[in-house]
Amino acid sequence: MIPRCLLLLLAVASVEAAPLPRIRVSPDGKHFVAKGSGQSFVPWGFNYDHDAKGRLIEDYWHNEWPAVVGDFEEMKALGANVVRVHLQLGKFMRTADQPDPKTLERLARLIDLAGEKGLYLDLTGLGCYHAKDIPAWYDALHEKQRWAVQASFWKAVAETAKGRPEIFCYDLMNEPIVPGGEKVETEWLAGELGGKHFVQRIALDPAGRKPVEIARDWVRQMSDSIRAVDPDTMITVGVIPWATVFPNAKPLFHSPEAGKPLDFVSVHFYPERGRIDEALKALAVYEVGKPLVIEEIFPLKCDIGELERFIDRSSATVDGWVGFYWGTPPDQLDTKEMSGAITRGWLEYFQTNAARMKAGGRLMEKRE
User: Fold this and answer.
1) Domain that holds residue 288
2) Are strands 23-25 and 32-34 parallel, antiparallel or unpaired?
3) pTM of whole model > 0.90?
4) Are 285 and 243 spatial neighbours (Cβ–Cβ below 8 Å)?
5) How do residues 11-57 score in pLDDT, each as one tens digit?
6) Overall number of domains in the chain
7) Inter-residue contact 126 to 172 (CB < 8 Å)
């Protein structure tokens, strides 16, 4: 395992990284390639969703920029090529139609940093993770108005990021859900985990619509707002794989009806101990003829050995994996605590397998 001092030395050596080529879907629609060379690209990276204190990046990127730089250097040295960053709407939109220029400037600087370190960004937007950061005016909006604000968010982000090959993709929202049946919901956020709200409704009242119709119209409006200014960067939606809970579940946001504007499929998997076969069966549901990325994965419900088996066995159909990094290098984690031991095990596995996975590993062998 590379110690922290050497990690930093390796990272410093990569500061003058060559310009990154834009990543796109291959002509046959099966995986990712670099524009120009056609070289295969396998995302192998981290969710940089919060730091060790639980703070989101917008909480400290203005006043503690060196911490962000250091974390990006550490992620690169651990072998990452993609970093998924989560952006809260309330930090980017001053009003319903006026973005915050200071926050957009910081986003532009983050894109520059990614390019300097040789990392791609998965920009996941519309976050409402911290309830205290949700503007009262936004929470009070009806669906049509709310969607309009969300579209304005994406237009502002895309205007900042357009033309930048460092952007791997725009992820429209983390784990959106829609109401089922005829039930009218009253809260936009669904549940809390560790002080954060990761799941968000895009509608409260079905109003006679089928779930796929709601998903279709929302995806189209968000994608259209991006495409109006950025025709090149890939778009996806990171979803909960409901097939792990309901065996007969089918993709909603990545269905043929709703997913046409989306370039690839993103799902979030946390395999359970002793249920790897079931997880793989559920994963197969999301093979819809597009590249498939497991955009969140971590040994949360199983040990690292089982997670490794899941990743290896999924490599026949999966085109990338994105785990987690929370700003603490492996050698600084307190392994006397369970969370520290689990995280260190994950990071050691990640680093050990980085070269193999980014080079295609079993993924390309099986496809051949």
Assistant:
1) 4-367
2) antiparallel
3) yes
4) yes
5) 444 445 678 999 999 999 999 999 999 999 999 999 999 898 889 99
6) 1
7) yes
